[in-house]
């Protein structure tokens, strides 16, 4: 899909007044926050969701509000990043008062199941096209050169709150290796990932660990 088509589809969706209001509210709220899952990330995921949702025939009227709200759990409960999907699935309701209860439930489920799957992480399995599309749209932000920078930024932030060994370069390299095993759910996302296969996270991780060996060999 060319860029202009994706922008056009999103612009059309945002003419729906309640969605336009949600977009503006999220943009304002995120602009105050200095976190890795910031407005830039939300917008990359939202645009990925437009592309994937269109190609997978998902209902974008559910996927896009979910994309805008998907990481709200990082904002409400910053000390527990691993559970941000669960926190987000309940926190989203208060932003969706203009949506029906049935819609809110679906959007909440999309948020609950967005976390992605790779070794060492348990995830709620996405099952509907909308759930699969948002999950993949978020994971695509861990592919390619932009993805590599985002992975490092996110993991370094986790490291600063004591999560895993992500406060060390070894920890970051191990995290990058983990990110090379992400499982995608849709053909559209696999196609997008194929275009973003450089750099190989496996190679990046291996090279960093090889260079670190010299420094890690020091014994005092
Ligand atoms: Fe997330
Ligand atoms: Fe995200």
TrEMBL record:
InterPro entries, A to Z: HD/PDEase_dom, HD_domain
The HD domain, residue ranges: 38-143
SMART domains: HDc
Listed Gene3D superfamilies: Hypothetical protein af1432
PANTHER family named in the record: HD_PDEASE DOMAIN-CONTAINING PROTEIN, SUPERFAMILY HYDROLASE, PUTATIVE (AFU_ORTHOLOGUE AFUA_1G03035)-RELATED
The protein's name in its UniProt record: HD domain-containing protein
